[in-house]
């Protein structure tokens, strides 16, 4: 809004300045004619004219140069419109003159001077308008050098204005040199026609028309202005004479030159427009392919876009995209051709033993046209085939078809091979993204499995006055398969279990939950560990897949008999500290893991064992995550070390023993981030009664 | 990482395991045994003398073939395990289900 007000203000000032020019000029002329000494200095009209030029210059600067919304055709239109208005006004003046005919007024010198001034004002206006428009056109895609040259041109012209105002004689002396310099610079500047290339076919025609009309106006205006220069006065005494005004003259020459150049360049660019447009379309298509991976939902869309764009850029009649996928065999996407027809052509080419269309290790694009001639009933006479690569692996072939023989040239060949490359990249990116998504989903699943697994472990362990029990379990980043649980069978019997499910991840969590179900249902009324294992195995062989197994040890602690009965099914040996003898030992017994023997003979592979306990005896249960934890020297924590650690703290409470053990484990491995699941359960008997 | 070398000695397929078998390399072990079975060998020797470690997934591979071997009358003997590895087999009770020999000569005897 501010610029709008400013342009209006400038326009009004320009008109006022022009009126001032008319007044001063005519009054001086009148005085001179009547032999009077003019009261106004003779240089004043020149200064006012230059002020008028400067004001108009700024008016157009705001109106044209600063208006970003104008495109090339709009600029030409502005120049044309300004030219039209001034021409019409000038014609009206002519008409009035003709109507007046030979009347007295028509030959009055004041009247002649007045019309001259009107024409001059209009001419300056058109020239400045065109100057600004051409400036924008020339400075489109500017370089540093170009900007410098332009600045020199503009400032040079401004300085010439100044001299014109101050010293008439000086300017007259060097008139030709200064003019010559400006014309030269203007010529160099006129060589900048980059904008022409960005016009499309229709715009070029419009541009041509506008430029042609503008050139006509310019010539008309120059002619009128020239012919109107009152001859009644000796040019030497002429107060205002544009033909010796360096600025106006340079402007005239520059504007006309550029108009004519532009016209010619646009004209000669017409035939090549389609090529440029095609190139532009290629770029756009290119972008479409690369953007498609961000917007499209699947690979299929990428393939379809590839087909469409390659067909449209080389003006093919049909195309297909053949993809080799390990599982699904050959898949074909087609464009303007039936799949059967495509397969017929492929089969024909295969029969002709043409390699390249199906041969996956073909790495060059090939023109296979000569082989099509022999195929009867085919409408296509030209074919080009391109391999598509993803991660260096050929995933398929793009084939383009034309009904014309020899329909493809080298140029097209290059373009589409670039397309095929781009499509390969797009597909690769697409697949990477899919993979990342898949990974993300997998991680999410693991998170859920981990929560499930955590929830399977008991929050509270069974309590008894005859023993104290603690448990600790930690799993690696992935979901682990360690499980422990307790269950009170009756007043004096408690069942314990520790188990390790083979494998990791969601499957392990599933098997663990099965194990929990089995434990809670079978342990209810069971005080025979061997039987428990047998039944558990029977139940599990229907759930565990081949190669999966569960190692477990099941205990029944009988506080009345002060005995523990247990069965070990492939789990780590039980560590027991006997307080009365002050020794710790691993029980050596036999037992095959659950799920390894898939029939009823399993009973033979499982032992029932028993031991008595007394006050301060300690039972240590653990999983292989503890004994197999490694240090930096790749040594295992091992059973020996576990036994020693227990002996160090045998007098402490189970909680303290556990803490000590875990600390020792972390010390040994040098990190608290052990890459395995590790679980321990410590039971200390305190049978004082 | 595991390297598996297969060598045929008078009708016996000798599969040598070199390195460690964990969850990921157990797939290679599975493939090697499956190949041996696919080539209709009825006598398979597993050379564990260079086997440094085996995880439960690796043991699962051996375990998973027990029934198939029984059906197809294939005999497989493992030999040359170091203490650590043989301990792993024993804890799980696999020594009760698989034929395990201390050296190659003994293993060959067990095959016959």
Key features?
heterodimer, A: 689 residues, alpha+beta, Beta-Lactamase, Phosphatase 2c, domain 1, 3 domains, five-stranded antiparallel beta sheet, 18 helices, 15 strands, 15% strand, elongated, B: 112 residues, alpha/beta, Transcription Regulator spoIIAA, five-stranded mixed beta sheet
Q: Overall pLDDT of chain A, averaged? A: 83
Percent in strands of chain B: 25-35%
Oligomer: heterodimer
- CATH superfamily heading of chain B: STAS domain
Q: What is the count of DSSP helices of chain B, taking H or I runs of 4+ residues?
A: 4
How many strands of chain A?
15
Summarize the structure.
The complex is a heterodimer of chains A (689) and B (112). By secondary structure, chain A is an alpha+beta fold.
Describe what this molecule looks like in 3D.
The complex is a heterodimer of chains A (689) and B (112). With 689 residues, chain A is α+β, with helices and mostly antiparallel strands. Chain A folds into three domains: 71-272, no CATH class; 296-434, Beta-Lactamase (2-Layer Sandwich); 458-685, Phosphatase 2c, domain 1. Helix content of chain A is 54%, strand content 15%. Chain A has helices at residues 2-33, 44-65, 72-100, 109-138, 144-166, 168-189, 201-228, 246-269, 273-295, 299-314, 339-351, 369-372, 410-456, 505-522, 529-540, 624-627, 638-648, 654-669; strands at residues 318-325, 329-335, 366-367, 382-390, 393-402, 467-474, 482-490, 493-501, 550-558, 563-569, 575-578, 583-586, 609-612, 618-622, 678-685. Chain A has a five-stranded antiparallel β-sheet. In chain A, strand 11 (575-578) and strand 12 form a beta hairpin. In chain A, helix 9 (273-295) packs antiparallel against helix 10 and helix 9 (273-295) runs parallel beside helix 13. Chain B is an alpha/beta fold and 112 residues long. Chain B has a single domain (2-111), classed as STAS domain (Transcription Regulator spoIIAA), CATH 3.30.750.24. Helix content of chain B is 43%, strand content 34%. A five-stranded mixed β-sheet of chain B has the order 1-2-3-4-5. In chain B, a hairpin with a 2-residue loop joins strand 1 (2-9) and strand 2 (12-21). The relative contact order of chain B is 0.17. Chain A binds chain B through residues 500, 502-504, 546-549, 551, 569-573, 590-593, 596-598, 605, 624, 636, and chain B through 23, 30, 56-57, 59-61, 63-64, 66-67, 84, 91-94, 96-97.
């Amino acid at each position: 809004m501010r610029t709008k007000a400013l342009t209006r203000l400038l326009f009004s000032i320009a008109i006022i300045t022009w009126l001032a020019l008319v007044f001063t000029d005519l009054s001086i002329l009148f005085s001179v004619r009547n032999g009077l000494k003019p009261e106004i200095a003779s240089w004043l009209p020149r200064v006012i004219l230059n002020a008028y030029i400067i004001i108009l210059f700024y008016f157009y600067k705001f109106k044209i140069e600063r208006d970003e919304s104008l495109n090339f055709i709009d600029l030409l239109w502005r120049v044309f419109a300004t030219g039209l208005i001034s021409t019409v006004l000038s014609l009206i003046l002519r008409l009035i003159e003709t109507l007046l005919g030979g009347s007295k007024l028509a030959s009055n010198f004041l009247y002649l001077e007045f019309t001259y001034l009107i024409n001059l004002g209009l001419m300056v206006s058109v020239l400045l308008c065109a100057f600004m428009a051409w400036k924008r056109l020339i400075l489109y895609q500017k370089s540093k050098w170009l900007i410098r040259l332009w600045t020199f041109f503009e400032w040079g012209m401004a300085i010439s204005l100044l001299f014109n105002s101050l010293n008439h004689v000086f300017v007259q002396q060097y008139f030709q040199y200064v003019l010559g310099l400006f014309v030269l610079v203007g010529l160099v500047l006129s060589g900048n026609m980059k904008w022409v290339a960005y016009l499309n076919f229709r715009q070029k025609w419009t541009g041509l028309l506008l430029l042609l009309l503008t050139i006509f106006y310019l010539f008309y205006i120059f002619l009128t202005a020239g012919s109107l220069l009152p001859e009644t006065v000796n040019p030497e005494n002429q107060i205002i004479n544009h033909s010796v005004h360096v600025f106006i003259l340079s402007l005239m020459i520059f504007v006309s030159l550029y108009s004519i150049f532009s016209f010619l360049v646009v004209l000669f660019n017409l035939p090549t427009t389609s090529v440029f447009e095609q190139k532009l379309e290629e770029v756009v298509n290119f972008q479409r392919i690369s953007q498609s991976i961000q917007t499209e939902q699947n690979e299929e869309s990428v393939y379809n876009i590839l087909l469409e764009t390659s067909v449209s850029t080389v003006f093919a009649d049909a195309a297909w995209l053949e993809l080799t996928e390990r599982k699904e065999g050959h898949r074909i996407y087609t464009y303007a051709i039936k799949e059967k027809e495509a397969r017929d052509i492929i089969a024909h080419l295969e029969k002709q033993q043409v390699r390249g269309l199906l041969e996956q290790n073909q790495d060059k694009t090939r023109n296979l046209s000569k082989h099509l001639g022999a195929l009867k009933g085919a409408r296509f006479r030209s074919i080009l085939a391109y391999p598509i690569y993803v991660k260096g692996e050929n995933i398929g072939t793009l084939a383009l078809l034309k009904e014309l023989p020899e329909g493809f040239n080298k140029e097209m060949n290059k373009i589409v091979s670039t397309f095929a490359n781009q499509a390969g990249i797009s597909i690769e990116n697409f697949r990477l993204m899919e993979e990342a998504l898949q990974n993300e989903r997998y991680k999410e699943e693991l998170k859920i499995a981990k929560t499930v697994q955590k929830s399977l472990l008991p929050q509270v362990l069974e309590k008894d006055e005859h023993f104290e029990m603690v448990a600790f379990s930690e799993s690696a980043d992935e979901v682990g398969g360690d499980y422990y649980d307790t269950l009170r069978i009756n007043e004096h019997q408690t069942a314990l279990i520790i188990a390790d499910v083979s494998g990791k991840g969601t499957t392990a969590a599933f098997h663990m939950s099965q194990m929990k179900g089995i434990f809670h249902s079978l342990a209810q009324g069971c005080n025979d560990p061997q039987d428990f294992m047998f039944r558990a195995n029977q139940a599990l062989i229907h759930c565990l897949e081949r190669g999966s197994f569960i190692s477990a040890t099941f205990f029944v602690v009988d506080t009345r008999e002060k005995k523990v009965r247990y069965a070990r099914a492939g789990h780590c040996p039980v560590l027991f500290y006997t307080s009365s003898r002050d020794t710790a030992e691993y029980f050596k017994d036999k037992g095959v893991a659950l799920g390894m023997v898939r029939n009823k003979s399993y009973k033979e592979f499982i032992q029932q064992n028993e031991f008595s306990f007394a006050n301060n005896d300690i039972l240590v249960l653990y999983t292989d995550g503890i004994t197999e934890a490694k240090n930096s020297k790749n040594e295992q924590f091992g059973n020996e070390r576990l036994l020693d650690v227990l002996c160090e703290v045998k007098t402490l409470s189970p909680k303290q023993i556990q803490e000590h053990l875990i600390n020792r484990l972390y010390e040994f491995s040098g990190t608290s981030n052990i890459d395995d699941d590790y679980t321990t359960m410590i039971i200390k008997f305190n049978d004082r009664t | 990482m595991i390297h598996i070398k297969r060598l045929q000695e008078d009708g016996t397929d000798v599969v040598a395991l070199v390195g460690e078998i964990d969850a990921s390399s157990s797939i290679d072990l599975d493939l090697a045994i499956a190949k041996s079975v696919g080539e209709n060998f009825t006598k398979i020797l597993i050379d564990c003398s260079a086997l440094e470690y085996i995880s439960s997934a690796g043991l699962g591979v051996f375990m998973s073939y027990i029934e198939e071997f029984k059906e197809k009358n294939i005999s497989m003997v493992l030999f040359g395990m170091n203490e650590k590895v043989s301990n792993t087999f024993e804890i799980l009770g696999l020594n009760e289900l698989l034929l395990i020999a201390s050296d190659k000569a003994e293993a060959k005897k067990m095959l016959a």
